[in-house]
Structure formats: C-alpha cells, structure tokens
C-alpha cells in the first residue's frame, strides 16, 4: 500500500488489515505465478479511449493524445503464502506491493541491460517481442524472492536507523514493531530504488522513473519520518488542502498534481512534469543513449498500491500487476505518465471523452450508474469528498481519469 493512508493510518486498523491479509494468504490456493487472463490478459488498452490529458499540466495539447496503448501483465501474486517466510523474517506488513515493486523494477532494469547488449550485437526485436522478452523474468519465483528480500533489507535498515535516531518516538516495543511493520511510504520506495535499481543505470542501463502523487497538501497526515522528507522534497511542488472543506484541494498555476523522480547514471532528481518534459525536449530524445527502443523503467504510486513496469516506443506502456483484485493499469496517474512520456505527433488522436464543461445541475449522490462504487472509492481515497466524487463521475460518464480531471480543473470543485 502506498504512502499516506498506509503509514499514517491507525495502528489498530492496520493490524486488523494485516491479520486479514495473513488469513487470505493462508487460504490462497492459486499458483504464485499469476495467469495471463482477465485484467492481466495483456489486451491492448488504447490511450485514446481513456479520457483527455490532465489540463493542469497538458493544457496546450487541445485534448490530443499520442496513439498508443497500455498493457497489464501478470507477475507474482503478492498475497501468496510463499511470501510469508520473508514477511515473518523482516517483520513487514502483509501487503508487500512496495517491496515487490522495487523487485520488479530491478528485474526489469536488469533485463533492459540484456536487451540493450543484444541490440548492440545486432539483434533487433519488434515491439511485441521486446515486451515478451522483458516480461519473461518477472515470473521467475526464485529471482523475484531474492530481489524482494533485498528490498526488505534496504527498507528495514533505514527504519532501524530512524528508530535509533529518534528514541523518544519509540518508547515501547509495540511502537517499534509497528514502525517496522508499516506499509512502504513513497520516500522509502524511492530510497529502495536508489539503493537497488539505480546502480544498474550505468553503461547499458536504461533510465528509471518513479511517478507519484504530490503529497505536500496532505502533510498534516504524515508520520514524523514522512513529514521530514515531504518538507525537504515536495514543498516546492505546492498544493493546498482546505482545512474547512475536506476533499477540496487547490493547485496553483505553478503547482504540480503529480511529480516524477528521475534516476539516471549518477543522478537522482525529483521533478515537476514541466521540468521532466523540458529536460527530455532539450536532449533531443530520438538520440538519447537508452537504445533505439527508447525504453524507460518506471515505478508508480497508484494511490493505495504500487506497481512497476516499462515504457517504450512507439507509445507502449506495460505494467506488471501483482494482484487479481483490480485492474490497476486503469489508474489515472498512468495516463498522466503516458502523456508525459509520449507527446502527441501530427497524426495523434483526440481523446474520446469530451472536455469538461461546468454542470448546469447536480446529479445528486444517487445519480446514474456512471458513478460506480469503484470509481467513487478511487476518488474518495484521493481525498475528495463523496459528493463531489459522485458529481464528477456523473459528468465524466463514469471515467475516473476524466472525473479526476474535472475535480482538478473546476474552480468550484478543486
């Protein structure tokens, strides 16, 4: 589980959820290697069918998106009992998506180096073959277990150091244990990527991005360790929550709804979308030293979940899923990352969802079926109130990405 809701949540509630996760893991009868089916069938999901670009960052694109698609691919099932020995050994949360995300990113980075070396030797694959080549090792149980353990070691070492430096915050065995058992925070995944994945970005390595929500407007909910890092790293990205109106968040003209941490050889920097885009443009991306596939590995904060994947030309974004409970590839932040990675070309398409116009009437809390329970839940989880989530989904015909665009754009909702 990602960031705030995890680390800042009530300890007793988290414990109850951990017990539930352990029970689910003990009853799991499916193979740890997930099947290529359902939400993870790798059926192309066209970008043009997923709503218009986020206007706060892409207002100059006139709702045009680059033609391309998303794929959701199966990895290892995070709630399988085979992970329990590692969970017990390192005293982690039962929800291990943060550790798995770091592991998958590391495996993909290693695989990308192999791909680049073979390319240098004259082997050239088409894009579909590249996708299958990259995905092959993410189902290797022994390799993934090894990489997950490395991530757990990295995060645990950091947490123990924090405990040692702040004894006044951990006066009981329980408080110490709870801190070690917390879900992985954004800054912790960032540090784990720096420790375990960034060293691979040398020579034949490819760049890595960690795309995540700007958390500055939620800093009042942060735990002490999160607070320090968010103040140091995210304050400049702005965003303001209204203390008197829960769910109301305002982003100024120069604020960032989401941010991208760029990992390159010898370099790690957190950037706004505009900064990331400007740097890519200045480099003449067609000639970047990441290979003709123009591949990048990514980790993504999906607001309650983490996942990893890779993107490559011509406009392909592949996410490795570690759960069967929902199709996380539909998360709005992946649209934003796609639009950042793949700027429109003269032949690009307009998104199928209309641009938002201010409503003339309210749909009410119990309006059309467009305001699905899962869509409402996703928006509420992001901090918006139940009422405005329903209303935005009414006007977006149930499309969560467009609804979120509405909430961030409309003066009376954002």
Structural overview:
The chain has two domains: 3-48 and 62-345, no CATH class; 353-414, no CATH class. It starts with a helix and ends in a 5-residue tail after the last helix. The chain is globular, with a radius of gyration of 21 Å. An eight-stranded mixed beta sheet has the order 1-3-11-10-9-4-7-8, with helices on both faces. A two-stranded antiparallel sheet has the order 2-12. Strands 5-6 form a two-stranded antiparallel sheet. With 414 residues, it is of the alpha+beta class. Helix 14 packs across helix 15 (400-409). The chain is 41% helix and 13% strand. Mean pLDDT is 83; it is low at 1-10, 286-291 and 353-371.
Features:
414 residues; alpha+beta; 2 domains; 8-stranded mixed sheet; 15 helices; 41% helix; 13% strand; globular; disordered N terminus
Topology pattern, helix = H, strand = E: HHEHEEHHHHHHEHEEEEHEEEHEHHH
Largest sheet: 8 strands, mixed
- Which residues sit in consecutive blocks of at least 5 with pLDDT less than 50? 1-10, 286-291, 353-371
| Distance linking N and C termini | 25 Å
Q: Count every helix, treating DSSP H or I runs of 4 or more residues as helices.
A: 15
Q: How many E-type strands? A: 12
Strand content: 5-15%
Total number of domains: 2
Range of helix content = 40-55%
Question: What's the alpha carbon Rg, rounded to whole Å?
Answer: 21 Å
- Let me know the average pLDDT: 83
Shape: globular
Strand order of the largest sheet: 1-3-11-10-9-4-7-8
Q: What structural class is derived from the secondary structure elements? A: alpha+beta
């Amino acid at each position: 589980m990602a960031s705030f809701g995890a680390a800042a949540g009530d300890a007793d509630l988290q414990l109850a959820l951990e017990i539930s996760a352990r029970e689910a893991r003990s009853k799991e009868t499916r193979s740890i290697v997930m099947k290529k089916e359902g939400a993870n069938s790798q059926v192309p999901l066209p970008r043009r069918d997923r709503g218009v670009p986020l206007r706060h960052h892409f207002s100059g694109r006139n709702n045009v998106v680059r033609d391309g698609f998303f794929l959701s691919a199966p990895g290892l099932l995070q709630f399988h009992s085979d992970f329990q020995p590692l969970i017990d050994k390192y005293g982690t949360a039962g929800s291990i998506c943060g550790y798995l995300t770091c592991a998958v990113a590391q495996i993909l980075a290693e695989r990308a180096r192999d791909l680049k070396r073979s390319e240098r030797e004259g082997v050239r694959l088409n894009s579909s073959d590249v996708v299958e080549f990259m995905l092959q090792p993410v189902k290797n149980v022994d390799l993934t277990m090894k990489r997950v353990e490395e991530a757990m070691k990295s995060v645990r070492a950091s947490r123990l150091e924090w405990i040692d430096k702040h004894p006044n915050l951990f006066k009981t065995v329980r408080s110490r244990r709870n801190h070690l058992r917390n879900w992985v925070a954004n800054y912790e995944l960032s540090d784990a990527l720096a420790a375990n994945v960034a060293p691979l970005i040398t020579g034949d390595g490819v760049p890595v991005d960690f795309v995540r929500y700007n958390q500055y407007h939620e800093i009042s909910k942060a735990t002490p360790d999160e607070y320090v890092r968010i103040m140091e790293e995210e304050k400049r990205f702005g965003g303001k929550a209204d203390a008197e109106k829960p769910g109301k968040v305002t982003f100024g003209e120069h604020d960032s709804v989401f941010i991208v941490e760029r990992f390159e050889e010898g370099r790690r920097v957190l950037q706004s979308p505009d900064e990331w885009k400007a740097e890519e443009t200045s480099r003449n991306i067609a000639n970047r030293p990441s290979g003709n596939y123009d591949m990048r590995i990514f980790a993504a904060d999906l607001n309650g979940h983490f996942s990893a994947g890779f993107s490559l030309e011509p406009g392909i974004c592949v996410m490795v899923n570690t759960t069967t409970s929902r199709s996380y590839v539909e998360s709005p932040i992946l649209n934003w990352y796609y639009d950042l990675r793949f700027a429109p070309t003269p032949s690009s398409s307009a998104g199928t969802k209309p641009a938002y116009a201010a409503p003339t009437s309210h749909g009410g809390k119990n309006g059309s079926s467009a305001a699905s329970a899962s869509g409402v839940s996703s928006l509420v989880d992001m901090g918006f109130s139940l009422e405005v989530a329903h209303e935005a989904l009414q006007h977006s015909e149930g499309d969560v990405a467009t609804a979120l665009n509405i909430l961030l754009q409309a003066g009376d909702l954002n």
